Amino acid sequence: AQSVTQLGSHVSVSEGALVLLRCNYSSSVPPYLFWYVQYPNQGLQLLLKYTTGATLVKGINGFEAEFKKSETSFHLTKPSAHMSDAAEYFCAVSDSYDMRFGAGTRLTVKP
Amino acid sequence: GAVVSQHPSWVICKSGTSVKIECRSLDFQATTMFWYRQFPKQSLMLMATSNEGSKATYEQGVEKDKFLINHASLTLSTLTVTSAHPEDSSFYICSAGDRVTDTQYFGPGTRLTVL
Predict the structure, then answer these.
(1) For residue range B81-114, what is the model confidence (pLDDT) as tens digits?
(2) How far apart are CA A74 and CA A69, in angstroms?
(3) Which of A49, A97, A104 is opposite residue B97, by nearest beta carbon?
């Protein structure tokens, strides 16, 4: 069985500040890990994913995430928040093809 | 990148009617497609896994007789909400797995409103 926990349903940062969205996972096999972004009334857009290899993964829009097996974490970061980053972010874990999502974190960016 | 389309993007129907939602992989073949449901301000919940040429696998608590899934070809899966009720109003999202790139691609979603 696999699951994902996103710490913090709502994160608020100032424009230009560091963005940190937390994700911890549980998986009985080496996981595939994902971060998706969802803008209002739209579908999901893949930000980045980790499968194997380098543990620091770079994605689109300046986001990156680091896979830490010892901490079972896959936190999403961005050095400098932009107003356009305001959205809902979902962390997901997959063992092969079945994907499970976290509850989501709503990111608000203040001017 | 790979594209997954859904049709319709939104639909309003009367209680008791049935609604069909299509999910298509436009430029790749998908032996497996997934159907999710998202209630307002909540995460996605996996409803069922659709396998081409075989019966869908439903998650616990999802009524298979109410949410009919058909995956007749490698590029098309359909979800039919039968005898829809207001509580079925939700955002339905499909995804399709591309085995070549080992990535799931999500459709834009279909918003269903049942009056």
Answers:
(1) 999 999 999 999 999 888 787 777 889 899 999 9
(2) 9
(3) A97
